[in-house]
């Protein structure tokens, strides 16, 4: 067992190690994904990806018109 200063230093190091990382990748992902497929509700970054998605996942459907 550690005592005194060693114990305090060990607790501080463990607290820093177990601290949650700042910022969330989920928040950044939500900001980046702006377009969603109305059929399967997958979220995409832009209209070009939506067109590619329709070509591969929904080949019989026409992609929606680009809304600018």
Automatic annotation (TrEMBL):
Region (Disordered): 1-26
GO cellular component: cytoplasm; nucleus
Record keyword Cytoplasm present: yes
Pfam families per UniProt: SERF-like_N, zf-met
UniProt superkingdom: Eukaryota
Keyword Magnesium part of the UniProt annotation: no
Major subcellular location class: cytoplasm
Cited SUPFAM superfamilies: Expressed protein At2g23090/F21P24.15 (SSF118359)
Keyword terms: Cytoplasm, Nucleus
Ranges of Basic and acidic residues composition bias in the record: 1-19
Domain C2H2-type per the UniProt entry, residue ranges: 37-58
Subcellular location: Cytoplasm; Nucleus
PANTHER family given in the database record: GEO09665P1-RELATED, ZINC FINGER PROTEIN 706
Record-given protein name: C2H2-type domain-containing protein
Organism: Gossypium darwinii (Darwin's cotton)
């Amino acid at each position: 067992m550690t005592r005194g200063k060693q114990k305090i230093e060990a607790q501080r190091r463990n607290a820093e190690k177990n601290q949650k990382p700042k910022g969330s990748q989920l928040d950044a992902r939500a900001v980046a994904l702006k377009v969603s497929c109305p059929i399967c509700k997958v979220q995409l970054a832009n209209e070009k990806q939506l067109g590619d998605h329709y070509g591969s996942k929904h080949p019989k459907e026409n992609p929606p018109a680009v809304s600018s």
